[in-house]
Amino acid sequence: MQIDILLPFKEKFSMNAAGAVSLTVKNTMKYSKYFNNIRIFGQHVTNPFFEKNFHGLNNNWILHGGHNKSLAYHYYKKNLNESFKKKIIEIHNRPYIFNYLIKKIPNFPMTLHFHNNPQQMKGSKSIKEREFITKSASAVYFVSKFIKNKFIEGLSKNYNNLHVLYNSVERNIQSIPNKKKEILFVGRLVPEKGAHIFCESIKTIAKKFKDWNFTMIGSSQLSKLQFKSKYEKKLISEFNNINFNTNYLGYIENDKVLKKIMEASILVIPSLWDEPFSLAAIEGLSQTTVIISSNRGGLPEVIGQNGILLENLNEKNLKEKILELILNKNLIHEYQQKAWNNYKFNSSELVKKQDFIRSEILKNYYSN
Fold it and tell me: Domains along the chain?
């Protein structure tokens, strides 16, 4: 029996440049009872997670009409030469690739994982496309109820193969850690992530509270490449020039990000778009870091009462909440305790749901 996971082309299954999809797959796979039966397919990378499980695929994007289509084609060709009798194929976040492969490889059960709004993705924008996916897939997974609701909008009936499967981070601390006087932004430096709002909100705070540090982590691209957008250059320059206690770290590897989150008192998620889930949010909750976030997309169901959700987040109300926390140590401790008591995103627990669904698919598909 085999489980094949096909990643989007832009995802690099490596600590050096892993995106949210790669990290989510890595986090849950580690605790899966099917670990030894899982193969990960994606673009070639150096130092992949779980090297024995990873298979890099060739990419002739000009010949095959795109990077993702080329990966799918090479996976299909590889599949022709294999003799596995039982296999599940899991496609991540590329509905048009699911639509392509379900027709090319009809003799294995196939599932599709949505990490973004289906109504905005090639291959699932229309109701007709989403009906086809639902009828063709053995299971369709969504990273939040928010994303599932976007998928089922307009569907003619209820289906029992649609599952919310939250992203996960294993909490590996035994108690609430000692915190530094530090406030973080972690994320891609693109306008919709709202890093410029974080920057504007702390300009007077950083100068007044010199015993606090303000740190920004991330880049517009998921790598250490030197190219920077105009937005990114302007933001970094402004942030570094606020005061001596503001520090831009750029793109750093996920284990180092988690260490910074563990040490920080506050994590700011000022998203201006409907976040499907937010891996940064559960990384913060896992380390009992107080979260201030916009109240959009999947963020409310992830954070709930365990952090601070701001309606219509802007520079003014974000500044007010940051000040409120800085001036009230007991409030920080209160939110830390909530995050500690109510954490529900451990990979070792959430993968059990996925493995159960996998076992049901195997049992039902191959019993006929």
Answer: 2-168+346-366 (3.40.50.2000), 182-342 (3.40.50.2000)
